[in-house]
């Protein structure tokens, strides 16, 4: 049986949406993707009872009030309804020990869920930063990342490799129970994992744009996630 993977969606206030690349990446890894609408306290248990794993996709900036800060002048669009839904789904999936993978914003949601903070604008808040908001096509590689933990080394197979990048925010202070798993040369956090969960990990880049084009590291990540959802 192929595992069923629930994916969060973008919320434009007029419609819910998702990039096809996320769906294709899950399918290539052997899973069945299903899109999840915004969850509430009344629906979260029923929604997640239908899936074997949760993928938190990228998207808008997170409301800074959720991590105790005022909005930075460079903050982008915020959709609080989506923030509340993503955090609810994240917390419930974690409680149920369901495999969880976060991508870009999904990594930031994971960090906030455990009490961490967000760097609201890398160019103005990180000293000598790399260009993390890549101007080229989404499937093009940009900077390198360094893998730091045994779990990430097991997934990716190498200690360093190149990734694409489309974000102006990143993790600040790590949330409780989370540890740094991958980092860029400028110190920006590129991957995290939770120490008390068998598969609760996230990355800051966009592997869904790379896996369908044959990138082995992106494919290894989605394969490890889907395999975890089979157990």
Rg, alpha carbons: 16 Å
Which percent range fits the helix content? 25-40%
Strand segment count: 13
Mean pLDDT: 97
**Approximate shape:** globular
| Count of DSSP-assigned helices | 7
What does this structure look like?
The protein has 231 residues and is of the alpha/beta class. It is built from 7 helices and 13 strands. The strands form 3 sheets. A 9-stranded mixed beta sheet has the order 4-1-5-6-13-12-11-8-9, with helices on both faces. A two-stranded antiparallel ribbon has the order 2-3. A hairpin with a 5-residue loop joins strand 12 and strand 13 (200-203). The longest helix has 16 residues, at 80-95. The protein is globular. It starts with a strand and ends with a helix.
SSE layout and pairings?
Elements: E1 4-7, E2 10-11, E3 16-17, H1 20-28, E4 32-35, H2 44-48, E5 53-56, H3 80-95, E6 100-103, H4 105-113, E7 118-119, H5 122-125, E8 144-147, H6 150-156, E9 160-162, E10 170-171, E11 178-184, E12 189-194, E13 200-203, H7 216-230
Parallel strand pairs: 1-4, 1-5, 5-6, 6-13
Antiparallel strand pairs: 2-3, 7-10, 8-9, 8-11, 11-12, 12-13
Helix pairs in contact: 3-4
Comma- or semicolon-separated keywords:
globular; two-stranded antiparallel sheet; alpha/beta; nine-stranded mixed β-sheet
Structure summary:
The protein is α/β, with parallel strands linked by helices and 231 residues long. It has 7 helices and 13 strands.
